[in-house]
Amino acid sequence: MKSNIHEHQNAPTEDVRKTTLLFDFTVDKTTKTVFIDRQFDAALPLVWDAFTKPEILDQWWAPKPWASKTKIMDFKVGGRRFYAMVSPDGEERWSLQQFTSISPKTNFKMSSAFADKNENPELPGSDWDLNFSEQNARPGDPVGRGTSKVSIAIKNESLARLERMIEMGFKEGFTMAVGNLDEFLATGGEEIDRVMRAGQRLGLPATRGLALDFGCGIGRLTFALTHHFGRVVGIDISESMLRQAAALNQCENCAFVANASDCLPFATGSFDFIYSAIVLQHVPEKKIVRRYISEFVRTLKPGGLLVMQIPSHIPLRRRLQARPRLYAWLRNVGVPSRVLYERLGLHPIPMTFLAEEAVVTTLTESGGRMLEIIPDRRAGEHIASRTYFATRADETSSPKCLKNSRT
């Protein structure tokens, strides 16, 4: 007996790339198998990585508000993934996956079973067969921006296990999880597409040779920028994040650089485009934020485009509450994190702001020219923020700040 659930979801996008993504979920009790066909608005290599690399799997595999925590993953034939679904209260539900066959970027098979925290499987389990295929890119898509389809067959060893899996909400949970993956895959591309459209309206950048993603993290925006520029450099203070970025974004035209200084290790006039969002607000001092703005102008080419987001004002109460020690003290005395964040507005990460006038002054004194200032809510619902679009005022070089250059 088959029960068919056919769903179509709108991709979360705001431009001409908006489309309908296939989601077909079928339960066949006769063969004790669940069949899933799911389309993703991303290129095949990125979708393959999303299913096979633990650092990405943990970003989306668990339905919210649960989180995925991978303890062990060795993606090879005979290897395994041992992971837990973790609830907001810390409850852990462990599972063990063992990989039996791998055809890179085409197919992999694995057995899956619930387990205890000591990696003892609870049998019987299920056998997963995952097939990946690339769909045709749509007219106007940049190279590498086509869609991909994942077809999954999950065969259970017993009808009882299949029914238990369905009763536990597998269909609903998996739907939420792939929704998380949609968000993960779409965020970088959509954000950069919007920024590039704004740049086109301003007539900048004049050329699209080299771009800088400042505070790149795991490189989602870095990868998105590779569709618009000949070469992209991602820079970040965290070497561990950069290692993840390099593993996730194995493309020929991007590179990752570690830098803990407020002096950027690039030559004057290096970049056609510099982008920074939700990064400068976490720089601990205003004088360092100003220094980075000066460095952005220095390393920008004439005819280049600088786009940067910075909070313009934070209420005094929120400035005081943002201190991590206060947050940590309240957590230590037993106040739940959800109460601190949702009811009291506390956040464990410190935040810095720079008034709009100070940003404009710093930019102008550094040899830049402000083109446009757009209010945004990227720092939080109750925090004023701005996205600034700027360029070099002329071809005069800014003061040098070179310890070394990597371009």
**CATH fold topology of the largest domain:** Alpha-D-Glucose-1,6-Bisphosphate, Chain A, domain 4
Briefly, what CATH class of the largest domain? Alpha Beta
Structural class: alpha+beta
Helix content percent band: 25-40%
Per CATH, the architecture of the largest domain is 2-Layer Sandwich
What's the tally of helices? 11
Features:
alpha+beta, Rossmann fold, 407 residues, disordered C terminus, disordered N terminus, nine-stranded antiparallel beta sheet
Describe the structure.
The chain is of the alpha+beta class and about 400 residues long. It has 2 domains: about 1-185, START domain (Alpha-D-Glucose-1,6-Bisphosphate, Chain A, domain 4, 2-Layer Sandwich), CATH 3.30.530.20; about 205-315 and about 350-390, Rossmann fold. It is about 30% helix and about 35% strand. It contains 11 helices and 16 strands. The longest helix is centred in the middle third of the chain and has 33 residues, at about 170-200. It is elongated.
Strand-helix topology:
Blueprint: E1 2-10, E2 20-28, E3 33-40, H1 44-52, H2 54-60, E4 67-73, E5 80-86, E6 92-103, E7 107-115, E8 121-134, E9 148-156, H3 159-167, H4 170-202, E10 210-214, H5 220-225, E11 231-236, H6 239-248, E12 254-258, E13 271-276, H7 286-299, E14 300-313, H8 316-321, H9 324-332, H10 337-343, H11 356-365, E15 368-376, E16 384-392
